[in-house]
Amino acid sequence: MMLTDYRYLCLIYIGLTLLYLVSDYFKMRRFWRAIEAVMSRNETIDNIAALPRGYSTQQKLFVRALKKQVNNYHRFVATSIDKDKDKQNFAMYWAHEIKTPVIASKMLLADHKEVLPEKVRQQLDYQLNEVDRLTMQSLYFARLDSFEADYIITEVNLARIIKDVVKRQATLFISKKIKLTMTVPDVWVRSDSKWLSYVCDQIISNAIKYTPPSGEVTCSIEQRDNHVSLSISDNGPGIASEDQQRVFDKGYTGSLGRSSHKATGMGLYLAKQMALKLGHELSLKSELGKGTSIQIIFETKPQYFMPE
């Protein structure tokens, strides 16, 4: 009798155990299917409300721990954004403030140019222009993430922009005795004049930097059926083939930049990023020992051309 009771109790125990395991299995399956459903809807982990509640104690602990990690992640992102904004605001503040002493120095140099040797005056003028250019570079870099809030697309005279940029760079052309050849008819394209001017300034400045003394820089505008192309070329040392795919990468200076210790790897990166945001295509062609040509393509329509 006792043996029968023992067997009966064992069967009850086994039955209850199986019932618990089956119940736990279905709870687990229901929970993970809910997780899979969230993933299949492409819900991000940021959407805590989309997470299932959890049916067992372990599942509830798992969901609670996951929500805690998500909240910690949100706080980290918010803090990082605030820090980035602080850095951006400081960079913009610095760039604006440094303009005052630069302008004052230029005025002082202009007022006392007769007492300075021509070569010294040109060198000082060049260095002040470099400070101004690099200051603007830092300012535009700080504004890059908020670009969409600071541009207006209108019809702009591409030839006028090129001529204005060349005029600002006149001291550099003169000091290196670089010949400038321009074929720039009055062509109108859709862009933002301020940002496009900066893109052209970076490219021309780069061309001057790597053109040897008494070399040549060429600017030309060509009209096509559905686009306008601006080419800025130099007869400098050219760019090695292994560097050409990376010259627009942030911080990449290439073999020429590393040998001269003057390149920052930011100018062409910014030019490329701004051109893309404006909807323009920026490309490069170069042959080692023969020079480099950078081309900007503007998608356009016939009515944007100024009649000759």
Q: Could you give a short description of this structure?
A:
With 308 residues, this protein is an alpha+beta fold.
Would you write up a description of this structure?
By secondary structure, this protein is α+β, with helices and mostly antiparallel strands. The protein has nine helices and seven strands, in the order αααβααββαββαααββ. Among the domains are: 2-55; 155-304, 2-Layer Sandwich (Heat Shock Protein 90), CATH 3.30.565.10. It is 58% helix and 15% strand. Strands 2-4-5-7-6 form a five-stranded mixed beta sheet, with helices on one face. Helix 6 runs antiparallel to helix 9.
Question: How is the secondary structure organized here?
Answer:
Blueprint: H1 2-40, H2 57-111, H3 118-143, E1 154-157, H4 158-168, H5 170-175, E2 179-183, E3 188-191, H6 193-210, E4 216-223, E5 227-234, H7 241-244, H8 254-260, H9 267-278, E6 281-287, E7 291-299
Parallel strand pairs: 2-4
Antiparallel strand pairs: 1-3, 4-5, 5-7, 6-7
